[in-house]
Amino acid sequence: MNIILLGPPGAGKGTQARFLVEERGMVQLSTGDMLRAAKESGTEMGQIVADVMARGALVTDEIVIGLIREQLETVKANGFIFDGFPRTLAQADALNDLLAEQGESLDAVIELEVDDEVLVQRIVGRAAEAAAAGQPVRADDNAESMKVRLMEYYKKTSPLIGYYYAKGQLTKVDGLGEIADVKAAITGVLDG
Ligand code: B4P
């Protein structure tokens, strides 16, 4: 089973993807994690994306599609969770092509719905918790970058909701509840 977790920044895509990895043995493909790893590695690509990500903007389609292509061509999995990808219509079209090249298809798109106010609280809260614990704070986890991340989401990513709805692949899940409740709702969708 190959699925997409779609939703605004802080909706809980990464949080829920980790449960699916633990319980179903699926492979999580998080473009956010891949880009952060590139940033840490100090490669040329890492330097290019670091500033874009810190501002809260989207990294170019070319870079992100390249990262996903590399994974799909090399990793064998009993199902992929696309976490934070696609984020633009061009990425969605590319994913269709990449899956077809591998003889795979998309089984479900789960959209996590969360109010903007709660999203900002979660992200600012995560930054405060990390700082209090003496852990590194994500460069984009602050109110200013979050404004840009939300603007980017509504402008470039939210059109994907209609795109996948028209294909009959979209299911909306209330992402406002407790983490365990959201997890149960996703389980219901995938097993239903
Ligand atoms: P991502 O790493 O994908 O991060 P995200 O969308 O901000 O977070 P996510 O929805 O996974 O939330 P999480 O579970 O962490 O993207 C970061 C950046 O990378 C982007 O801004 C962009 O620059 C770049 N990028 C990534 N993919 C790209 C692409 N395809 N194209 C272009 N650029 C790309 O949860 C957040 C917090 O909420 C956590 O603290 C968590 O504990 C908490 N939480 C989660 N669920 C909760 C719940 N139900 N109740 C209470 N708290 C909850």
Automatic annotation (TrEMBL):
Of the GO CC terms on this record, one is:
cytoplasm
Q: Does the UniProt entry include the keyword NAD?
A: no
Keyword entries, A-Z: ATP-binding, Cytoplasm, Kinase, Nucleotide biosynthesis, Nucleotide-binding, Transferase
The residues listed in the UniProt record as binding ATP, with positions renumbered to this chain, are: 10-15, 126, 177
Q: Which CDD domains match?
A: ADK
PROSITE patterns, alphabetized:
ADENYLATE_KINASE (PS00113)
Q: What is its main location?
A: cytoplasm
Q: Which GO terms describe its biological process?
A: AMP salvage
Which domain of life does this protein belong to? Bacteria
- The EC class name is transferase
Pathway assigned in UniProt: Purine metabolism; AMP biosynthesis via salvage pathway; AMP from ADP: step 1/1
One of the entry's Gene Ontology molecular-function terms is: ATP binding
Entry coiled-coil feature ranges: none
Could you tell me which InterPro entries the record lists for this protein?
Adenyl_kin_sub (IPR006259), Adenylat/UMP-CMP_kin (IPR000850), Adenylat_kinase_CS (IPR033690), P-loop_NTPase (IPR027417)
Which residues are recorded as binding AMP?
Answer: 31, 36, 57-59, 84-87, 91, 138, 149
Q: What does UniProt say about this protein's domains?
A: Consists of three domains, a large central CORE domain and two small peripheral domains, NMPbind and LID, which undergo movements during catalysis. The LID domain closes over the site of phosphoryl transfer upon ATP binding. Assembling and dissambling the active center during each catalytic cycle provides an effective means to prevent ATP hydrolysis.
Q: Which NCBIfam families match?
A: adk (TIGR01351), PRK00279.1-3 (NF001381), PRK14527.1 (NF011100), PRK14531.1 (NF011104), PRK14532.1 (NF011105)
Q: What does the record give as the function of this protein?
A: Catalyzes the reversible transfer of the terminal phosphate group between ATP and AMP. Plays an important role in cellular energy homeostasis and in adenine nucleotide metabolism.
UniProt family annotation: Belongs to the adenylate kinase family.
Q: How does it associate, per the subunit comment?
A: Monomer.
What is the protein's given name?
A: Adenylate kinase
Q: Which organism is it from?
A: Tateyamaria omphalii
